[in-house]
Specification:
This protein has 261 residues and is of the alpha/beta class. 39% of the residues lie in helices and 24% in strands. The strands form two sheets. It has a six-stranded mixed sheet with strand order 6-7-8-3-9-10, with helices on both faces. Strands 2-1-4-5 form a four-stranded antiparallel sheet, with helices on one face.
């Protein structure tokens, strides 16, 4: 059963069509890749899924409910969370503080109860801290809870951003180029983490990625965009042989050769 259904979605900006009649379905507990050249509309799609943009036309359904047009916080509360291509951490806050920021949707405290330090408030805060510690451990940052975000290595910052996204308790996680800027070893570790998200947390993962070794190594299904249109979709072994996909990548066989290596 599809957890996400994108139905004939288009998005235009002052006459410029960023996405044109794109449809796709994502099955629950799968790892799906969205690929395409720069300017293909991949990030626009993510911005539509998370409510940052509204479709010019079309519909977006998540777990049987229509979500396009909802404000960002309601889409997050519905179970969709994301990371960004450019890391967006609070650099002067600690790792655990960054994760706690992401958990605010599930706290019922307010300014008054926080000031009064009511018992249920204290209990909620303790649970949130314990959950944040467990999340940091899951992404491989055990023992780094009190390290300032800007002191973490680049790969660790990427993991911290995922941890913060997990604090929202999503059922679907959108990863925007999770291995961007990573060396081969860090990329392999990220692949393991992405698999663990699905295998251990039973989460649905949709990722934008330019490294074809990562896409072919972790994704079970791929959607390909080019100039705002879907040109191919299917299993990795089928997509990488699609002539339209090969032509979209500079008209060479680079995609096929890289994916096969």
């Amino acid at each position: 059963m599809a957890i996400l259904s994108v139905r004939h979605v288009s998005r235009a900006f002052e006459g410029l069509i960023a996405l044109n009649d794109v449809s796709m379905e994502v099955e629950a507990e799968t790892i799906v890749g969205v690929i395409g050249p720069n300017g293909a509309g991949k990030t626009t799609l993510f911005n539509l899924l998370t409510g940052f943009y509204r479709p010019t036309s079309g519909e977006i359904w998540f777990e049987g409910k229509r979500v396009d047009g909802l404000p960002l916080h309601r889409i997050a509360a519905a179970g969709i969370s994301r990371t960004f291509q450019n890391i967006r951490l609070f650099s002067n806050m600690t790792a655990i503080e960054n994760v706690l920021v992401g958990s605010h949707l599930h706290l019922s405290t307010n300014i008054a109860t926080a000031i009064l330090r009511l018992p249920f408030t204290v209990k909620q805060e303790k649970r949130a801290v314990q959950s944040a510690v467990e999340t940091l451990r899951f992404v491989g940052l055990a023992g780094r809870e009190n390290e300032l975000a800007w002191n973490l290595a680049y790969g660790e910052q990427r993991r911290l951003e995922i941890a913060r996204a997990l604090a929202v308790r999503p059922r679907m996680l959108l990863l925007d180029e999770p291995t961007a800027g990573m060396n081969p070893g860090e990329s392999v570790d990220m692949i393991r983490l992405i698999r663990a998200l699905r295998d251990d947390l039973r989460m649905t993962v949709v990722l934008i990625e330019h490294q074809m070794r990562v896409v072919m190594g972790v994704c079970e299904y791929i959607t390909v965009l080019d100039h705002g249109e879907k040109i191919s979709e299917g299993r990795p072994e089928d997509v990488q042989k699609d002539q339209r996909v090969i032509e979209a990548y500079l008209g060479t066989g680079a995609l096929l050769s890289e994916g096969a290596s």
